[in-house]
Q: What sequence folds into this?
């Protein structure tokens, strides 16, 4: 039996790419396995479209408009979700999927709250949402966050020029680059990798603070060039990425979206907890430095300070 038999799944970033594919996979499950869906994304035609598509497939689906670059929007989304749950508009909440993410070119770019945009959306927004909804989760429940192997350097990423994380104090990571600095793709790549290392640290600490029956895992969809994540890097890179995506074995949203849905819902993954790291269909050990109790506790403390 899967937790989707009686539950609701909340997912961020449902309007394109990996998130849209995951929503489609969940909505098209059989009625006995299909969850109710709370879709948190930027309000507009794309959110309306995926909501209508999910409903047409037979799912109970609600659009919750929110810009994850604004913590006020995220808090409002959490309140809306709680209201839908409390009013019985959807079944009990059994999974939260923190799928939304950005990779910005210019690390001087700030969120509405003044934080470096990559860190704000990839980490802080989901930390806020989890904080607001943790009490509404009905065990057995799962929190699935989106990770990336870019947090460490290996030979393929070295050849591609993809920089690894360069960890600093979280308050420094949340600070946009100086206005007078020159933006660079390496700085943007480091910011993205730092945000993904933060997700691993956060997942480990979050598990220690959650009640029994709520499990945390981190999903890596695989190398997925040309996805909406890189939309800020220009159409040329998008076209190259889509061409690479046609190579067998390279991940695409269509291939990885159902895998993300499975990690959130299927009995196969019921054992995952403690921030277990899943790369597509296989559980993997993270690099030793990605488990660091001191950094994890410091990130939690700084995150609480940044959220206010």
A:
């Amino acid at each position: 039996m899967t937790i989707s038999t009686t539950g609701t799944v909340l997912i961020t970033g449902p309007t394109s790419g990996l998130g849209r594919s995951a929503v489609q996979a969940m909505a098209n499950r059989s009625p006995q396995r299909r969850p109710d869906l709370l879709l948190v994304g930027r309000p507009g035609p794309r959110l309306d479209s995926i909501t209508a598509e999910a409903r047409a497939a037979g799912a109970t689906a609600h659009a919750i408009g929110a810009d994850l670059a604004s913590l006020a929007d995220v808090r409002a989304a959490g309140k809306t979700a709680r209201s839908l749950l409390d009013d019985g508009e959807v079944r009990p909440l059994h999974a939260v999927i923190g799928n939304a993410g950005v990779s910005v070119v210019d690390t001087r770019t700030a969120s509405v709250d003044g934080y470096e945009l990559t860190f704000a959306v990839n980490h802080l927004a989901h930390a806020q949402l989890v904080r607001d909804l943790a009490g509404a989760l009905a065990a057995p429940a799962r929190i699935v966050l989106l990770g990336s192997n870019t947090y460490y350097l290996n030979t393929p990423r070295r050849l591609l020029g993809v920089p690894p994380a360069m960890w600093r104090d979280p308050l420094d990571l949340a600070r946009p680059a100086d206005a007078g600095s020159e933006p660079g793709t390496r700085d943007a790549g480091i910011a993205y990798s730092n945000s993904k290392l933060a997700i691993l640290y956060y997942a480990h600490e979050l598990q220690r603070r959650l009640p029994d029956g709520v499990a945390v895992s981190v999903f890596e969809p695989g190398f997925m060039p040309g996805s909406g994540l890189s939309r800020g890097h220009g159409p040329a890179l998008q076209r190259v990425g889509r061409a690479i995506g046609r190579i067998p074995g390279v991940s695409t949203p269509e291939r990885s979206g159902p895998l993300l849905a499975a990690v959130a819902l299927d009995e196969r993954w019921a054992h995952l907890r403690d921030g277990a790291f899943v790369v597509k269909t296989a559980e993997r050990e993270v690099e030793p430095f990605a488990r660091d109790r001191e950094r994890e506790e410091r990130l939690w403390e700084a995150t609480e300070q940044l959220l206010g």
Strands lie at 8-12, 36-41, 61-65, 93-98, 137-146, 214-220, 276-279, 282-284. The domain at 3-102+113-148+200-286 is CATH 3.40.50.720 (Rossmann fold). The radius of gyration is 18 Å. The CA atoms of residues 69 and 157 lie 28 Å apart.
